[in-house]
Sequence to fold (164 residues):
Amino acid sequence: MRAVVVVESYFGNASQVAETIATTLRERGASVEVHDAASAPPRLEADLILICAPTHNLSLPSASSRAQAVQRGAPQPAEPGVQEWLDEVTALTGRVVAIGTTAGSRFTGSAAKAIVKRVARKGIRAERGPEFVVNATAGPLRTGEIERARDWALSVVAGSSGQK
Ligand SMILES: Cc1cc2nc3c(=O)[nH]c(=O)nc-3n(C[C@H](O)[C@H](O)[C@H](O)COP(=O)(O)O)c2cc1C
Fold:
């Protein structure tokens, strides 16, 4: 299996999820590239294209929410993020799955949902994958979330076995 992961992260939690999934897929024999959204190419082709971002203001990070993240202690982030990258995307060929991180209370909004909608504007279908919960704005991820990311990656490999 060939997989490409595109990730945006301010406090490192979405990156930790993305790296856990990438490592798990590699352990199972996949070849995996991980790109920061700021430098991801506009055309991607792979068996699995995973897009991972934190939820900001109920949706995907924007220029203003990035500034708010920096005010809340994030290191100065690389811009642009997933939202701006998706606006420049010309082709995503393969199974596209959106995943996100959230603060996990009841009305959090969802970066993953926003990714699915944004990808649809390009006429591309993305599946809404899992959301991983952080304990606070800067993290860490809630206990068990890394294991859940690993299990999810294993389920993807299991589901794709038998396919090319
Ligand atoms: C400006 C800003 C707005 C946020 N808005 C939301 C929100 O609407 N819903 C939510 O669940 N979490 C929200 N959060 C918390 C983020 O989801 C959390 O910081 C992120 O998932 C951590 O991932 P990261 O370490 O990869 O940046 C917000 C965080 C920031 C900095």
Summary: The pocket of flavin mononucleotide is lined by residues 9-15, 54-58, 65, 68-69, 72, 101-103, 108-109, 134, 137, 139 (CB under 6 Å).
